[in-house]
DNA sequence: TTTAGTTCGTTCCATTACCGAACTAATTAC
DNA sequence: GTAATTAGTTCGGTAATGGAACGAACTAAA
């Protein structure tokens, strides 16, 4: 019955892997110092890991006093995961390998026919991305899909996703799983964005944070103590339903959200239309404000006030150390500066407001973080409680430039 | 160097303790089945625990087929913690023992001189509570103090606590530590309330929840995944600063909070005064509403709407499975029913709204939960990551009636 | 009352995992 | 070349655990 290694061994193995992942090529002696385990144990574990193909010798040290040491590193392509950012207009896919490199990504317009067509498109993109990087497809262990809606873990579908047709009835998880032959993890794209910024974006080291995405609508990914807040029904971060901006008790507010009505694309354009008497798209309004258009300036300022109030709401409830703004309009300086100005006027504690550093790749990076954590855990922690490999810090991870 | 037991032993020991704490008097054979460890290991660990005075034989099984088994149980008074609920008008103290019994409590009016006088009062109450229950004071390992403000872990003081004078400058933690001679843990009282309701109140089994306290002010304790959200500056749950109710950009709102201005005692009384032209205290207004007073009814309904919006805000951000209302006015049926009516009108997802079951003892119970978890962890988990003893579920724990 | 069947708990032994000391090997500083 | 230093292996010794075997204690039924 007991052919599995003892938990203490699994624990040690996990520590060794963490040291190797974090500290790049490293000698066994250094690992011993870092983990506190004896040299003998490290050699034993290293031998086993090398036999199983997870690590390999990579060179020798030199220049220091004393005998030169053999250094070991992760075999990057021993396993990999796919990460997909599914948007209403574009799909991005990338491969991340065991060494936590996020490899070049592939982008395409989303298949407009929706449903199963999109599932097949995603599967094809994953295969292409793997091939593109010379990675054998069999090494793929799982796929993380960021979706613009609320994943329903019960039925594997995605509810509240008006931008991708057919995903509210299709069992996406099962369909894509059958297509790719690996485990699938569905996650809200804004949640992934929060995780991405936390890993290697503008919120590294801040374990309590919120990422606010401002685009077609308004949404947030909230992290507490380094963990994502998903909520009881996976619906955490639905800022559009914050009860201000418009009367929250009107029927329309119940449908699209009181705040969404004024901070969503539609709401912003309507407000400009009402004041200026002419229509413009949102980037157009922002540009007009830059040129001194009074109506546009008013709309911009109102929007910033609403966003500031949304930030204040989050701060009043979870009190994050930093709030990162992102999304197509959330990162624009004219908005961010005004939010930075208004927030201290309606919330008394100081809160740092940052801008997304990863831009359009943020969800892909977040998906990689989730997938790699899951991969490391299943491969090396073996279900031992408390045994976890944290992802290497930002400076170790390089984002390879898109090769397409 | 290595006189500490191996982590695998500590891990097993932890599992054995958890089984004994959870399953009351239990035989070693049953523990073996439950933990998956061998009978031999259990006997070894049990012998050690018995030698160290943590567990004891408590009887024998009989009636079943086969040899009768010796059953073991926790030695309840092998160690205990103190839990204190410090309010503006009253101080409560109770002792909780290793077997998770919350023993009879002691209540007194808060020493009005504040500061060090209150610290001494707390220390005296702890000694009295211990004596009251025939527990040797030396068995006390730590004290958890629920305070009506924001604990500052840096300086051991309590900021934002207008109801207890002198605590904003005094190093309460150090002073009380010196007085009692044990480790002190300061925590916001509303946070403790959330933990209390989660442990043995109306939110057992709901790991994502919020407890809203409505009394002098409005505040919340938020739990995500079974863990309390403290926030970056320990200021999570400051609902008074939610940006609606009054104009959040007014100077007054920045000082006391936009929502606090209308949902706090002062705000409710002012609103009634304005409409009815006469003054009443808040319970009086509620009673008047029950008798059909139109002005009181209007104030009550407005208040319920504000609370509903506060609940909606929490739901939009952390999406808890249940929201528990408590505090001096939060538990009143006329308010709760109206909130239950208004919430679905401003928030689209269903949210369960409950009422505090523990009433005025909720913070004491929450403090006990925190203290006992800490106690179990330090005594038996010995700093091993992942080794944790969860508190026994509600049905195992009996709340002894107050003996005073 | 006896006996069969069952469960409890102990003893004994093999295995795994680990540490530490002693030792060999390789490299630099002088 | 020699001393100093660091890397890595070999060789006991110990802690933790599982499993088999066995005696002890108990119930139920013959």
At CATH's second level, what is the architecture of the largest domain in chain A? 2-Layer Sandwich
Q: Trace the largest sheet of chain A across and list its strands.
A: 6-5-4-7-10
CATH class term of the largest domain in chain A:
Alpha Beta
Q: Helical proportion of chain A? A: 40-55%
Q: Considering the protein shown, what is the CATH homologous superfamily of the largest domain in chain A?
A: ATPase, nucleotide binding domain
Cα gyration radius of chain A (Å): 24 Å
> What is the count of helical runs of chain A?
13
* Structural class by sheet pairing and helices of chain A: alpha/beta
- Strand content of the residues of chain A, in percent? 15-25%
Largest sheet of chain A: 5 strands, mixed
What is the global morphology of chain A? globular
Question: Topology of this structure?
Answer:
The structure is a homodimer of 404-residue chains.
Chain A: H1 7-22, E1 26-27, H2 28-35, H3 39-51, E2 55-60, E3 70-74, E4 80-86, E5 90-97, E6 106-109, H4 115-132, E7 140-147, E8 150-152, E9 157-159, H5 172-180, E10 183-188, H6 189-200, E11 209-214, E12 218-224, E13 227-228, H7 251-256, H8 260-263, H9 265-276, H10 282-290, H11 294-317, E14 322-326, H12 333-346, E15 352-355, H13 362-381
Parallel strand pairs in A: 4-7, 7-10, 11-14, 14-15
Antiparallel strand pairs in A: 1-3, 2-3, 4-5, 5-6, 8-9, 11-12, 12-13
Helix pairs in contact in A: 1-2, 2-3, 4-5, 6-13, 9-11, 10-11, 11-12
Chain A binds a DNA duplex (30 and 30 nucleotides) through residues 1-2, 5-6, 8-9, 12, 27-29, 37-44, 61-70.
Family (chains A, B): Belongs to the ROK (NagC/XylR) family.
Protein name (chains A, B): ROK family protein
